[in-house]
Design goal:
alpha/beta, Rossmann fold, 2 domains, 11-stranded mixed beta sheet, binds magnesium ion
Length: 360
Amino acid sequence: MLPLDRLCRGAEAALEKDPSRALVIAVTTRAIFNLEEEHKLYLEKGKEEYTRHQQANQDKPLPPGTAFAFIQMQYKTLTLTAKEPLQRYCTHASLKESISSQAVQYVNKKILESNPAERDLFDILVLSNNSPESGVRIINSAKHYGLEISKFCFVSDEDSTQYLKSHSVKLFLSADRTDVCNALRRGRGVPPDSSLLCLTGVSAALVFQQEVQAPSTPLRVVFDGDAVLFSDETDQIFQEQGLEGAVQYERAMEAIPIGEGPLKAFAMHLGKMRKKFGQEKSPIRTYLVTARSGRDMGIRAIKTLREWGLPIDEAFFMDGAPKGPILAQIQPHIFFDDGLHNIQGAQNVGVPSAWVPSCC
Ligand SMILES: [Mg+2]
């Protein structure tokens, strides 16, 4: 029997999924909901006051956070346009009627339509440092928005990432940088206190609270290349030898795939789902938006994706140009990048974005 301060509870109506086959995504409460005011209260007045506040407001749904659009998608909106901020959707009285599915649930539905026996499905887990007492508001908020979450884990340990491996988590989204760094170090026997420069543990990214747009289907996921899908080997050459050195390195290494980056494992799982569908009817679309130039540094990137067997629907080689305009056009449910200037550019156009720190 688990002690009450360390509780991992399956949702009542959740389908049983096989964690060894499912694409398990763990999100923290501050990633999926906007808990900034409550977090401030926690920091300023402590855990007891925070718990009291959450209990007093347990029936008041929390506003959506940055990762909300990724988990829950609005794909059949009759009353609002896709340009309006998601927060307005979610406070709108007709929201629950107009939401037809979660982003990942929509993909699950499409997969099961083509094969009812399929077990490669999305599975969402909420991981929280809230106590079970203050967690009631989290569960009620998830119910309010109709989020299909299979497990809620309320753990008191400071490093909650120790539970990622036992739940076979393939992607971890958190609003806490230490959490993200700990996750990136896990999974391949790297101790959490290690200071390795190349992190290749559980795919993980940091989300900042931001205003986001409400994307429509299909589920669209955008990856940066270097230090996200790929290792940062070419970035390091660029830092040491400049652009000319990096171009020469790429030419010399053209036949050799680039090393694995921190989001490769998640991208491969997503790609496995993507391969179940043809290009036109796929409920998932994947994108590469990289600062690399196509002429000098594109070939090795494309060859690497081919070598990995990773399907990418569209690739944009930006040659150092800002990514914001193309992201505004793609309107992804989530964008992963290791460059904070690119994250800022995505936030400026309302694109939900997640930062992958290359060094922790
Ligand atoms: Mg990069």
